[in-house]
Amino acid sequence: MSFITANWNPLGEAFYRKTELYEMSWNLRDGLRDSLVAAAPYGGPIALLREPHRRSPSSRPQLEIYSASGVDIASFPWKSGPVVQLGWTVSDELLCIQEDGSVLIYDLFGSFKRHFTMGQEVVQTQVLEAKVFHSPYGTGVAIVTGSSRFTLATNIDDLKLRRLPEVPGLQGKPSCWVVLTQDRQTKVLLSNGPELYILDNTSCTAVCPPGFSPQVGNIVQMAVSFSYKYLALFTDTGHLWTGSSHLQDKLSEVDTKKTPTPKHMVWCRRPKSQQPSVVLMWDRLLLVAGVCGDTIQYPSNQFPLEDPCVLVGELDGVRIISSTNQELLQEVPLVCQDMFKIASMAPGALLLEAHREYEKSSQKADEYLREIKEQSMLGEAVRQCVEAAGHEYDPSTQKSLLRAASFGKCFLTDFSPDQFVTTCRELRVLNGVRENGVGLPLTHTQFKQMTLQVLIDRLVYRQFYPLAIEMCRYLKIPDYQGVSRVLKHWASCKVQQKDLSDDAIARAVCVKVGDSPGVSYSHIAAKAYECGRTELAIKLLDSEARSGEQVPLLLKMKRSQLALSKAVESGDTDLVYTVVSYLKNEMNRGDFFMTLRNQPVALSLYRQFCKLQEQETLKDLYNQDDDHQELANYYVTASYREKRLDSRLSLLQSAIDEYNKAKNEFSAKMTEDEMRLLRFQRKLDDEKGAGLLGLSLQATMEALLSLGLHKQTEQLYRDFRVPDKRYWWLKLMSLAEKEEWEELEKFSKSKKSPIGYLAFVDVCMKSNNKYEAKKYVSKVTPEQKVKAHLAVSDLEGAADAAIERKNDAEMGAILSRCSASDRLLIDRLNRARAAAAKK
Amino acid sequence: MAAHLSYGRVNLNILREAARKELREFLDKCAGSKAIVWDEYLTGPFGLIAQYSLLKEHEVEKMFTLKSGRLPSADVKNIIFFVRPRLELMDIIAENVCSEDKQHSPRDFHILFVPRRSMLCEQRLKEQGVLGSFINIDEYILDLIPYDGDLLSMEYESAFRECYLENDQTSLYHTAKGLMTLQALYGTIPQIYGKGECARHVANMMLRMKREFAGSQNQILPVFDTLLLLDRNVDLLTPVATQLTYEGLIDEIYGINNGYVKLPPEKFAQKKQGEASKDLPTEPKKLQLNSAEELYAEIRDKNFNAVGAALSKKAKIISAAFEERHNAKTVGEIKQFVSQLPHMQAARSSLANHTSVAELIKDITTSEAFFDNLTVEQEFMTGVDTDKVNTYIEDSIAQKDPLIKILRLVCMQSVCNNGLKQKVFDYYKREILQTYGYEHILTLNNLEKSGLLKPQTSSRNNYPTIRKTLKLWMEDANEQNPNDISYVYSGYAPLSIRLTQVLARPGWRSIEEVLKMLPGPHFEERQQLPAGLHKKRQQGENRTTLVFFLGGVTYAEIAALRFLSQMEDSGMEYIIATTKLINGTTWIKSLMDRPESQTP
């Protein structure tokens, strides 16, 4: 433990440390010499384009892709044009910028994805230099061409090329340049000798950094910080100027006393940095120049002599990749300084010491603890230990810090364990992905910035499925965002494995994915179909729970029958309609009808559709199913649309035939009647202009009666076997309406009324003829007597009848009609009621 | 504004708010001023979700009714069509869009499908060549509309017809989707019971949808304990009977639409003293009916014969309250009295309104025709002479009473006799065809297909068994102070509600025999709850059941369920959901077929 500060170097007030991340797994024969190298930040992959050993027209350069730990991922001979620059996008895709301005995009595994070009004119002028940069908009590319013009693309996924204005006096390429993203604008900062220019969309402006004296020489190297906030300029006299990238403030100026142009120059900062610095690298020297003016020189004995290195700027430090190993250079976080600085009295440091004594079973542990507690700093001490653990790379250091924190926690009540638990979990994950085999050397700060979601995505992209799943489960991420997402990617990748049979893949996918929530089999199947494996896609679709999801793909794969049954299964009628209309266009009519016949739900939906849209088809459908009943109904409906009587009759005749076939004798008979009636109406309309056509039988008879055509009425009454009752009602009402009272009386005596005589009373009363009504009261049956008397407002008569019948309810009804003036009657009724009640 | 939705056992305002939020989001998607072109059918249901003021807040400046031809001119940036996904409407929209003046400042078109977008319709728009003219094509998932504190309706008028006549289960798909939405807001319903083919189908879809969304399980403590799905065709009798509750009668006589009723204006004329009431208003009086109105909430579910007493009691209370002013002596008392004035005045005008409505209804219920009709209904329900041709029906046909009245009675007789004897059956049909016209043969076919009107197939009539087992007829129904649900039909206890009641206690196992006689399967399903969401029931806490009537429910049935909720020892509260609020008339109407040339 005491050696923890061994690799610390002071810089101003702060310390810098250099930690080894990996011994590289690769075996590079020639080191990084003669290679184009691109390493992505956040512990991303490394790409190498190695020039061939012997320069001959036939030999090709080799493109190699490694994980950050140097594990071989892909390698293939470069067959395209000469490459100027390599770079990685934010989503770990490799950009190869060629001399002719075309940019080729490869995925992590070296398979070609697509390409674009930085402008046609570049083919002539050639790319001299190029840079890949990241901005809030995505990954961008900037080039400078042989005609000294700059072209920018701020987001390669939404390619818009911008040609920047000319730089006055610039010949060839500038001595150095960087891309800046400021205020949502992307600019180029470049130097040409002692001049410094800012180049934006519209103009090229000469600028002078504050406090930058022209005497210090020509600018030969420049660097912007990870956040684009700071700028460093190096001149050929060895001066290093640092300041804000807005060129408003100057931070410092350091004389490095080294005149050669450094190979690399990178900012080394961290969030809440006390002492930011710029790291410069020459062939045999690494120099950390602090903003305070102090420097640290890492001499060649700590540093591979011959081998060139690559510097990768990170959010919180600089990674130094050599052919043999990889180190992280960073400012020691403040909390770690407090913990480990020699003779630190910070509460965390004391707690760590206390725990160490405790482990040794020494009573000093108590003394240390007491000291912390006296200052009531124990909570702070625990927090410090936990936080410092997060920043440490070495698991044994992490452990001792966390143990100390855990020890301290025992003496605290009401201390939230959240930070401790979270840090433990995150460190476990980080240690997992830092493993050589995985090779993502993320610091805790980077991890927090990157978020867990992105980390899972990166693991999935690198096809570390089991690790990703383990992680999701360990961190208890809801399945939707965690395990299911991983499985989805796994399955989409699995279906592309050409060496496995459809069955084997389908089985493997179903076993692994099972019914994990949120994994869409149709999505996986679509992927399989994309790869030309239709059979596999169908097998996979079988496992899809959402029938609705299966349909579009099945249609696409021309499995329309299956699509139809899945659509029916989903219950979504719109989906069924969709498939049906698809089938209708795809199949010949016979097959189409046959298919529908096997799917009753679809068939009835299609019938509905036809009812509204295609009447003719409807008929065909019924015909094909021998559905005579519906066919008959169809003809009936159709008959009402016909204006001409003869076509109407012929449709009705067809209806009768069908009703007969359907053994629906009643309907057939009724339709015959209808035809008979229509013919009759037409005849009378023609003869007498009666205007009968379309009336019901009853209405026809009514109309005939009111026209005085009794004979014809009688004829209908007989021909259509109208029941006596209704005929009597008809005559009764018709005669009353025409006020033919004599006729009515005659009619009433023609035979015994089948509807009784109360109806006569009521109908007369409706015509306000009490005189006539009274004629029929006496004829009414005993049960209806009271009602009849009441109807003609003869209370006395009603009372007589009721008393005779000894009917209490009737007496009550009469009473309710009595007014105060009917005193005698009321008494009489009441007496009768009482008498009836006694019995 | 919609506070009455949140008073009940289940706060249905959550559902309304969710619907409003979605509407606002869609409107904001179309930036700038807008005009809405309405599918007329939707305006009623939408009124229950959002008033014009909400639309106005989101820059809706004009509203039109969807009709063919050119769109009216309106100086707005966006034209939004609010439509049901129907092909015939797509054709109208296409016509609208095509005849749009291209020279004029171009207006942006959008479509909002209610309740669900449809590929078929989009295909149609594509065929008409206008699909590309629409900037937004969206769906507004409005399945279950909160109607009142304990009532949800889909306002899907043709649901029964589609399910039982046309074998089109679209409405059931919407039902299942609506229930899923409901569960997303109110938690998974652990128990599902059902009776009927449609109920089975809905339950199956729900269970499958739940599987499809497995994993996105919601972590809401379930509000509903039980869901009961009931097919309307399990109980065909109840809707054809005349409802005898106050609300039921208003609906039977005047028709309640989306919570509003239109009444003849005469009774509502403002009678000022000394002014001859010559200029009677001619516009029908429009009243909103829901539980927000205290008095209405009190009397709506009473048997109409008990309404008069309730109204006069209320009148006494109100005038007593007004009399209080004479007792108010101190400034404080007067102040308190004044502060109550608005409430009292509202109560007084509400009383005046309902007194008028009650008078209107009373004129009808005391008529002989109403009495005779009711007598026949009750005879049928008690099983008197259901196997013979009924004289009253015969006479009514002869006097050309409205066809729907005849159909209601004939259907009722058929249901109560488990089908009519072939001779009786044919006789009625012939009478109807000869009197009302042969075109009604289609309607009769429909009624036959839906089981409402049918010939007797077996000699056994099982209606009496059902009636006795379920106690569908209660001889001594107490209309004033009911002790049983039979009060809603003055003697007849709705079969559907009896099933609900028995399910709660003692359970359906006790009536297996009867359940087998009713159409369709009965079933029970359980939905697994995520651990930790199992309700810990307090002692004496009521359980909540959502009763879903597939194919419609009447106000009297709702009244009966509310009565059960209020019964002290029932231990169960009911929330009611349905595809559509119906009565015998609207229901039979939905089953009628009118050949095109006959439609007025």
UniProtKB/TrEMBL annotation, chain A:
Gene3D superfamilies cross-referenced by the UniProt entry: Vps16, C-terminal region
Subcellular location: Late endosome membrane; Lysosome membrane
Domain Vps16 N-terminal: 5-421
GO cellular component: CORVET complex; HOPS complex; late endosome membrane; lysosomal membrane
Residue ranges of every copy of the Vps16 C-terminal domain listed in the record: 519-832
Domain of life of the organism encoding this protein: Eukaryota
Membrane topology: Peripheral membrane protein
GO molecular function terms attached to this record: actin binding
Any single GO BP term: vacuole fusion, non-autophagic
Assembly and interaction partners: Core component of at least two putative endosomal tethering complexes, the homotypic fusion and vacuole protein sorting (HOPS) complex and the class C core vacuole/endosome tethering (CORVET) complex. Their common core is composed of the class C Vps proteins VPS11, VPS16, VPS18 and VPS33A, which in HOPS further associates with VPS39 and VPS41 and in CORVET with VPS8 and TGFBRAP1. Interacts with RAB5C. Interacts with STX17, MON1B. Associates with adapter protein complex 3 (AP-3) and clathrin:AP-3 complexes.
Family: Belongs to the VPS16 family.
Job description of the protein: Plays a role in vesicle-mediated protein trafficking to lysosomal compartments including the endocytic membrane transport and autophagic pathways. Believed to act as a core component of the putative HOPS and CORVET endosomal tethering complexes.
Name of the molecule in the record: Vacuolar protein sorting-associated protein 16 homolog
Automatic annotation (TrEMBL), chain B:
UniProt keyword annotations, A-Z: Cytoplasmic vesicle, Endosome, Lysosome, Membrane, Protein transport, Transport
Chief localization: cytoplasm
Membrane topology listed for this record: Peripheral membrane protein
Gene Ontology BP terms: protein transport; vesicle-mediated transport
Keyword Ribonucleoprotein: no
Cellular component terms per the entry's GO annotation: autophagosome; clathrin-coated vesicle; early endosome; late endosome membrane; lysosomal membrane
InterPro entries referenced in this protein's UniProt entry, alphabetically: Sec-1-like_dom1, Sec-1-like_dom3a, Sec1-like, Sec1-like_dom2, Sec1-like_sf, VPS33_dom3b
Residues in coiled coil: none
Localization in the cell: Cytoplasmic vesicle, Autophagosome; Cytoplasmic vesicle, Clathrin-coated vesicle; Early endosome; Late endosome membrane
Family according to the record: Belongs to the STXBP/unc-18/SEC1 family.
Job of this protein: Plays a role in vesicle-mediated protein trafficking to lysosomal compartments including the endocytic membrane transport and autophagic pathways. Believed to act as a core component of the putative HOPS and CORVET endosomal tethering complexes which are proposed to be involved in the Rab5-to-Rab7 endosome conversion probably implicating MON1A/B, and via binding SNAREs and SNARE complexes to mediate tethering and docking events during SNARE-mediated membrane fusion.
Listed name of the protein: Vacuolar protein sorting-associated protein 33A
Native organism: Scophthalmus maximus
